[in-house]
Each structure stands twice: as structure tokens, then as C-alpha cells.
């Protein structure tokens, strides 16, 4: 029996027993009408739409676009309110997905989309012209989200031109740790990549600047961090308040950490976390190709700039 069910019912035992039960009931009641296949057309007339109604509503939508600059939602809800007559109110789609499907199958929909693409303003990609202009930011690692034994902070640096990146692990955010991270970055960027840092852009964190507020006026007092950069002939820039996009490259770089530790099972301390990140920095700088660099690695892109010079 099992072999027959597998052969003729595709191994669906529930289907076999369902029909076996229906056949027994039909023989018992001497009523075989229940065994006949029934139409799957919905009984509700509201969901049986005619081609004429579809054409009227599509015409109405594109008239909305021309005269009222209206969208799909405005027409959909106006039809539901009965603004365009009771007949269309009763015969229009009750589901927004059906409404969209009608419009997208109309050839005029593609024409509108292509027109929008033509007139849409294309913003040029922001790129700097010099090497040595760095973005700096701190990324925190907490045990609830990463495999670490306690909370750590990583000061990361990325060169805007070449996308070369390095970072350093610390147990807290402070001006002293930020200065120490910059010292390491100055040394490593010079020794590894032969890049001299001329500018560092940070956010408005307390380890970078001090904000004093009085009567809604803000004055910025230089910290030891800014003074250290000045002594090293490095310009310190800060982003506008609540504008992380101004440091967009380092912010995007930090998103990579989410995927980096997905399969990490070992709980990391400060040393092992730094080693893990160092392996990633090597891959990022020397092996991973970047679309923004014409599918070159950051290090190869740096070398290509040197050849041009």
C-alpha cells in the first residue's frame, strides 16, 4: 500500500486518506456529488474584475499623473471614498497590491518611470583629490552583540582617497586613548603605506572636543587631542552635529564588523580581538577589491596613483 501511495500520490499520505474518507462517506450516503471537482472561481463578485474596469481605472490614474501630479495611493483612497462615483467605488480593487499590478502592466507605467530617470538629478560621487586625508571614528564592541569578554572600543582610521584602513582596540573612550591611537596611525600609515597624514576628521565626541553651552550659544574649546594634532601639523576637522554622513566612509566601514564575527565562537579578549581585526585589515587593504576603486584593492589603487605621479 505504501508503495502505491508513493507512486500515485507523490508520497502524500494525508491526500490519500483525505480522499479515501470522502469516498467512504459518499458510498455510505449514496451521494457522489461531493466527489466532483469544484470551480475555484471566488463567489464574491467584488473580486471578479472586468477588463473594462481595469482600463477605466488605469486611464484615471494616468490622468491623475498629468493633471494633479497624484500618485497611486491618492487615487486608491479617493476611489474607496467614492469621489469618482459609486460604480467605480464598488468595482475598483479592494486590495492595493491588485491596484499596483494593474498599473504596472500598463505600457504607460514604464514610460513614466523612464521619464523620471531621465530628469532625476545625478549627484556626482564625492571624492577627495589628495592622499592622507583620514576619517576617524570609534566602534564599540559589547558582549551582547559580539563574542568579546567585555566592552571594547576600536578607533578606526580610513584614508578617503585610497580606502586604506587600520584600527586599534581600547577598553574605554578617552582623549589619551584617542591620542595614542593617532600616534599608532601616524606610524603605521607611514611605515606600511608611505602615507603622511595631513588631516583627520572626527565627530563631536567628548574625547575630541569640549562643548560649553550657555544661553544656547556653543563655543568649542580645543582639547589636548586637537593640540596634539596641531603639533604634528595635522588639521583637525569635525563633522556637523548629528551628521554622521559627513564621515560616511568610516561609518560604512564599521558595518563590515557585523558580518565579520557571525561565525566566531571563541570569546575574545583585547589581544585576540586586535589580532582578529588585524587579519581583517590585511584582507581589506591587500585582497578585497572595491567597486569604488575600479575593482582594485586599496593597496593596488595606491600603487597605481604612485605610477601616475
TrEMBL record:
Gene3D superfamilies recorded: Ribonuclease H-like superfamily/Ribonuclease H
Any one Pfam family match given in the protein's UniProt record, by short name: rve
Keywords, alphabetical: DNA integration, DNA recombination, Endonuclease, Hydrolase, Magnesium, Metal-binding, Nuclease
Molecular-function annotations in GO: endonuclease activity; hydrolase activity; metal ion binding; nucleic acid binding
Gene Ontology biological process terms in this record: DNA integration; DNA recombination
UniProt domain Integrase catalytic: residue ranges: 120-306
Name of this chain's protein: Integrase
Organism encoding this protein: Spiroplasma phoeniceum P40
Amino acid at each position: 500500500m505504501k508503495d502505491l501511495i508513493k507512486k500515485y500520490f507523490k508520497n502524500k499520505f494525508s491526500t490519500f486518506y483525505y480522499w479515501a474518507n470522502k469516498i467512504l462517506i459518499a458510498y455510505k450516503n449514496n451521494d457522489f456529488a461531493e466527489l466532483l471537482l469544484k470551480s475555484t472561481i471566488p463567489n464574491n463578485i467584488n473580486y471578479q474584475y472586468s477588463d473594462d474596469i481595469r482600463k477605466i481605472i488605469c486611464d484615471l490614474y494616468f490622468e491623475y499623473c498629468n493633471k494633479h501630479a497624484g500618485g497611486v495611493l491618492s487615487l486608491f483612497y479617493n476611489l474607496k471614498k467614492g469621489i469618482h462615483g459609486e460604480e467605480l467605488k464598488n468595482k475598483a480593487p479592494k486590495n492595493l497590491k491588485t491596484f499596483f499590478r494593474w498599473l504596472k502592466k500598463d505600457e504607460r507605467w514604464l514610460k513614466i518611470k523612464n521619464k523620471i530617470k531621465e530628469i532625476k538629478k545625478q549627484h556626482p560621487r564625492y571624492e577627495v583629490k589628495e592622499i592622507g586625508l583620514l576619517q576617524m571614528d570609534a566602534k564599540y564592541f559589547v558582549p551582547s552583540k559580539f563574542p568579546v569578554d567585555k566592552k571594547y572600543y576600536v578607533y578606526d582610521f580610513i584614508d578617503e582617497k585610497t580606502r586604506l584602513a587600520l584600527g586599534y582596540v581600547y577598553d574605554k573612550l578617552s582623549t589619551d586613548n584617542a591620542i595614542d591611537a593617532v600616534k599608532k596611525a601616524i606610524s603605521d600609515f607611514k611605515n606600511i603605506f608611505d602615507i603622511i597624514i595631513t588631516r583627520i576628521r572626527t565627530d563631536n565626541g567628548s574625547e575630541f572636543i569640549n562643548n560649553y553651552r550657555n544661553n544656547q550659544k556653543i563655543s568649542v574649546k580645543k582639547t589636548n587631542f586637537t593640540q596634539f594634532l596641531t603639533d604634528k601639523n595635522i588639521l583637525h576637522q569635525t563633522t556637523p552635529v548629528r551628521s554622521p554622513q559627513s564621515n560616511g566612509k568610516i561609518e560604512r566601514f564599521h558595518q563590515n564588523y557585523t558580518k565579520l564575527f557571525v561565525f566566531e565562537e571563541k570569546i575574545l579578549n583585547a589581544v585576540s580581538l586586535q589580532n582578529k581585526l588585524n587579519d581583517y585589515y590585511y584582507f581589506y587593504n591587500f585582497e578585497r577589491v572595491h567597486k569604488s576603486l575600479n575593482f582594485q584593492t586599496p593597496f593596488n589603487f595606491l600603487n597605481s596613483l604612485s605610477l601616475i605621479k
